[in-house]
Design a protein that fits this description.
The chain is of the alpha+beta class. It contains eleven helices and ten strands. The chain has a four-stranded antiparallel β-sheet with strand order 1-8-9-10, with helices on one face. A two-stranded antiparallel sheet has the order 2-7.
């Protein structure tokens, strides 16, 4: 049987729900969000040709980096990298915080129950007495003696008490404090999601960069071994001619020193290779060890065209810019929360239950204890605390706005730098390839001339000593040219198009 209190309680909940829906549709105090103005350039510096919406960043990473070994490494990093897994846990934390903020929209329902057993204090009945009574009977006085009763102690009774009630409370969001708080929490959640996308983007670029550095070191090692072999052949030639009385001890000594110098570079490069492999292992989320190789640095197939796209597209493509904007959204909402703190809050409470000396009677349907009320709380004098909170919120919003604009400006600069670097490294590579080809021909000619006796050993050593560093410089330029494409891809916001799939894989 449902009592009248239960019916009343049900109607109260229905009423508060209707009011909540009505208020949630209203306006919230505080500034509504407007995206900060960013003065995007019409085109990137050193951007060639007409500006087109097409961008290198539109390609997924496996179409930019076509080396199968590199693709396997990137996929492994997206599954196991610790920075990415940490970023995912931060998303879960922000999502839980947003759920907590959203819960304030609804009435909070709870219950209370208690059971007690006790005995009250005893009662003492005071003593009573009646005086002697004298009667005159037939002229004779007869005395009737009085009576007395001693005090009596009555012990207290033992009793049980059981209480059960449901409690409902709800803060009416008159000024939008809860709505602004929920808006801020949602923006923080979106910001952490953008941060996670930024980790994915950075991780793809880092794995590619370190892998290409490793392949360049492999090339340097081959150059060093070839240089050692070349100097060794010269040493053999001088040694044979020394035995024949043609070459001097000076020639043999210089050739020995040159070969030793080339040989000394080999263990240094091998040390760098090991350190680079260990660095790549950390990105992969595994213990240090050898790294599988694929295509050589010279054989890497990079996109033939690298369009930069429209500069303003960076604002919606790069995760760091999107994250910075969500921080502005959150700070803007916090300003609204600070404004609502100047206004009173209205809390509604309701309770319905029963009190009984017997436990089974609590379920009889006779809920005869209920209450309903409201409380209005508002500030009068806070000593400047609320004003300070508002000014702090405004200053934080200004900070996030400037950070957003600075992030966008840095993005434009990074793209411009990458475009310039790619073009200039391509020009340098052309000249260095010509230099290396000429020095290789010089070594061959000097050796032939020395063999037939029309030149000195200085020509051979000089040509060889120029060729070795020139080949190393060419390898470094080839690396820089590839890294410029990686930097451009990252700067344009590419590398996280499959962020949802990689997130599941990382879990």
């Amino acid at each position: 049987m449902i009592g009248a209190a239960q019916i009343m309680h049900s109607r109260i909940i229905q009423f508060t729900s209707i009011v909540a829906a009505s208020l949630s549709a209203g306006c919230a105090l505080g500034p509504n969000y407007k995206s900060p103005v960013v003065a995007a350039p019409a085109k990137f510096r050193d951007q060639k040709g007409s500006v087109s919406p097409a961008s290198l960043a539109d390609l997924p990473w496996w179409k930019v980096f076509k080396d199968s070994a590199l693709q396997e490494l990137i996929a492994q990093a997206l599954r196991n990298n610790y920075d990415l897994r940490i970023a995912i846990t931060r998303i879960e934390q922000a999502r839980a915080q947003q759920i907590q903020a959203r819960a304030a929209f609804f009435p909070q329902l709870g219950y209370q129950a208690s059971a007690q057993r006790g005995r009250g204090p005893g009662t003492v009945i005071p003593p009573t007495s009646t005086p002697d009574t004298t009667l005159n009977v037939g002229g004779t006085s007869v005395t009737i003696p009085g009576t007395s009763t001693p005090s009596t102690e009555v012990r207290g009774t033992t009793a049980n008490s059981f209480t059960a009630q449901g409690v409902a409370s709800w803060e009416m969001d008159l000024w939008g404090r809860i709505r602004r708080s929920n808006e801020a929490a949602l923006a923080q959640l979106l910001a952490t999601e953008e941060a996670q996308r930024g980790v994915v983007q950075s991780l793809v670029a880092q794995v590619a960069q370190v892998y290409f550095q490793l392949r360049e070191l492999d090339e340097e090692l081959e150059i060093a071994k070839a240089a050692k072999l070349s100097f060794g052949q010269s040493l053999d030639l001088f040694t044979k001619q020394q035995k024949g009385g043609i070459a001097s001890d000076l020639e043999v000594a210089r050739a020995t020193a040159a070969m030793a110098n080339a040989a000394a570079a080999i263990p240094q490069i091998e040390r760098q290779i090991t350190a680079t492999e260990n660095q790549l292992s950390i990105l992969l989320g595994c213990n240090p060890g050898p790294i599988k190789r694929g295509t050589s640095l010279l054989g890497q197939q990079m996109p033939p065209r690298v369009p930069a796209g429209i500069p303003s597209d960076l604002l919606i493509r790069r995760p760091d810019i999107r994250q910075a904007e969500q921080q502005v959204v959150a700070a803007n909402a916090e300003v609204g929360v600070a404004v609502t703190n100047f206004f009173p809050t209205l809390d509604l409470t309701a309770a319905a239950g029963a009190v009984s000396p017997k436990l089974f009677q609590l379920t009889s349907g006779k809920w005869d204890v209920w209450s309903i009320g409201g409380a209005l709380n508002g500030p009068i004098f806070q000593g400047g605390r609320l004003v300070g909170q508002y000014k702090e919120a405004k200053a934080r919003w200004e900070e996030t706005r400037l950070t957003y604009q600075r992030t966008a400006l840095n993005a434009f600069s990074e793209v411009a730098n990458a475009l310039t670097a790619r073009e200039k490294y391509a020009q340098a590579r052309t000249q260095q390839e010509t230099q290396v080809s000429a020095l290789q021909q010089s070594v061959k000619l000097a050796t032939d001339r020395y063999t037939i006796g029309i030149s000195t050993y200085y020509e051979i050593l000089e040509a060889q000593q120029q060729l070795f560093p020139a080949e190393q410089a060419l390898a470094q330029t080839r690396l820089n040219q590839v890294l410029a494409v990686v930097d451009l891809y990252r700067a344009l916001g590419g590398g996280w198009s499959e962020v949802k799939d990689t997130t599941r894989a990382a879990k």
